[in-house]
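Hey, resending since the last one bounced:
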Amino acid sequence: MVTSSYPDFGNRRPKSSTLLDNLNKKSADLSLVKQVASKAIIGLSQSELIDAFCNDLKELLSFDDIYPMITFLFEIESAINSLSDPAFDVLDPAIEEIPDLLEFYRHLSPILLRIVLEGENMGGGLKGDQQRVGHILNGWKEALRVAIEEELYVWKEKLSIGINHN
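The structure tokens again:
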């Protein structure tokens, strides 16, 4: 005997949570740095490109040490520069906006300057004992985190606006 009734006809079945998890996992696995390095960027849509960029920014937040954090930041910047290079020419023409780090650097600069000034006010400037140098490096790491979080917010907002208009 059929258990469905007339009102159920034509209704879409809700997506299972495993399907949604797989979709989220797919975008969580995207990395702009890895996609550019392997030239796998060809099939990415605008939203996947921004997701990959945001995933790399999130990965930056996972670093505990400032030096690998900065190294990976430069890898992201290099990947972005590759996308902007006309010789690279593998992006879908429908992609309207390539992520950049301009806002990131705008947010980062005043924070870094403030931290250097605080270090100077502690006495001895950038030269001095290990405690002062450690304080400045921790401040720089925190400044990077703040700027990265602001950058993530900006790009996630752009992504949500872009999806709502499509």
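Confidence is low (pLDDT under 50) at residues 4-25.

Sorry for the duplicate.
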